[in-house]
Design a protein that fits this description.
With 422 residues, the protein is of the alpha/beta class. Helices cover 40% and strands 16% of the residues. The protein is built from 16 helices and 14 strands. The protein has a seven-stranded mixed sheet, sandwiched between helices.
Length: 422
């Protein structure tokens, strides 16, 4: 059976740059997001720690002489390294000894428990977070509008997306899992459900060896899915779960959430705290998001037809889809993504801030009817920002589920998600 074709990833170039600058690169991210495949393209030799034929002997070797596992042509990929955490210090030592860049690539779908490594790896390791595929990577966005170009002032955005609302509902439920992208629709939609079941019944307990109650994990995921793209508090989630006659403590919720973060299932969106022209109480809570919106649709037991019949839920999940893609594109241009909301209710769904200080505000609206309101929101936010301290916004943009990309008379850009790339 031939290996499925490799679809280029936005982070391929980031990995090459990291290999040129560091002795070892650590690629972290959710299971099934494509870390191993991407790393194997760049590697010259590979050690699969989960190989069932050799796993026991690899573990024994790691316990006795871990340096033997590091022998091989560089860059050497060590897949799922956290199965033998001693390898971290072994790699760090070997990098120091060799003194060359690009020696090792480590991949992991779980953050090891605290204090399992003696050294942080500062100066030897470059860290790279990998997410499931964006629509540009899965060839469903035509990439005619570049986030990097927008920051550079190239804001002629006249183009057209071929993504219909029906197609958006499908790609949202399918998710960006590389193995599902080339499958037929029925098989592709099943993958996110299988992923959620694996998280509930196995992965969330394995990460810290603390047994989790599968029913409570499922109810927590369902509450997070119902509150996706909102500032839902722990108390809101607790009330949601206890409405089903299942009792759960704040401490348990926090413990379960921490485990879900460590296996990269949830990735909340932090608040942006800019300098304002006048005093304004800014909400500091993070927005609830999964690393991929298909996790929410799977746990809610809905499908593309279900979303098309519930545009309110579709709207929140569309924001989550756009958040995933903008995070991927922003990372490629050395940027971070936040959200903004103040006490008056003024908000921006996404704030992209580059390391050099440039920033842009983005609203997400599934339908065209809300574009006017979104544009006014963005202009109001721009007027509130202290531009002497923060600099002017590089651009203001409304991401839509529509067809046409254009620049409004007020300068606000309207861009379909099916046109964007890094």
């Amino acid at each position: 059976m031939s290996e499925r074709p490799y679809l280029l990833r936005v982070c391929d170039q980031e990995l090459q740059i990291a290999l040129q600058s560091s002795g070892a690169v650590l690629i972290e991210g959710a299971k099934w997001c494509g870390k191993t495949r991407t790393a194997s393209i760049a590697a010259k030799s590979i050690l699969y720690m989960q190989d069932p034929d050799n796993s026991a002997s690899y573990q024994a070797m790691a316990d006795t002489k871990p340096s033997l596992l590091l022998k091989g042509e560089a860059p050497r990929l060590i897949d799922e390294w956290q199965m033998a955490p001693v390898l971290w210090d072994a790699v760090r030592f070997e990098v120091d000894k060799r003194g060359d860049a690009g020696q090792f690539i480590l991949t992991g779908s779980a953050v090891p428990a605290d204090n399992v490594t003696a050294h942080t790896g500062t100066g030897r390791f470059s860290r790279m977070l990998m997410r499931p595929m964006s629509l540009f990577e899965s060839n469903e966005s035509n990439g005619t509008v570049s986030l990097g170009d927008l920051f550079d002032g190239n804001q002629a955005v006249e183009s057209m997306s071929e993504l219909s609302i029906e197609k958006i509902a499908f790609v949202l439920c399918r998710g960006g899992w590389p193995a599902s992208v080339l499958k037929n629709e029925t098989s592709a939609l099943r993958m996110s459900r299988d992923y959620v079941e694996a998280v509930i019944n196995h992965d969330v307990s394995r990460v810290d060896d603390v047994e989790k109650n599968p029913e409570r994990v499922r109810l927590l995921l369902r509450s997070l899915a119902r509150n996706v793209a909102t500032l839902a508090s722990i108390q809101t989630i607790k009330n949601d779960i206890e409405a089903t006659d299942v009792s759960i403590s704040d401490k348990t919720i926090s413990s379960y959430l921490n485990a879900l973060r460590r296996i990269f299932v949830v990735e909340d969106l932090p608040a942006w705290l800019p300098s304002m022209r006048s005093k304004s109480a800014i909400r500091t809570s993070a927005k609830r998001h999964f690393v991929d919106p298909s996790i929410a649709t799977a746990v809610l037991r809905t499908n593309p037809d279900g979303l098309l019949n519930d545009f309110n839920t579709f709207g929140f999940l569309f924001e989550s889809l756009c958040t995933r893609d903008i995070r991927i594109y922003a990372q490629a241009i050395d940027g971070d993504v936040f959200h903004y909301r103040d006490k008056s209710g003024l908000e921006s769904d996404l704030i992209v801030r580059l390391r050099d200080g440039r920033w842009a505000a983005v609203e997400v609206k599934l339908g065209n009817k809300q574009i006017e309101e979104a544009a006014q929101n963005l202009m109001a936010l721009k007027a509130k920002i202290d531009e002497d301290k923060m600099g002017q916004a590089s651009f203001l943009m409304v991401i839509t589920g529509g067809q046409y990309a254009y620049r409004r008379n007020d300068g606000v850009l309207v861009v379909p998600i099916g046109c964007l790339k890094n």
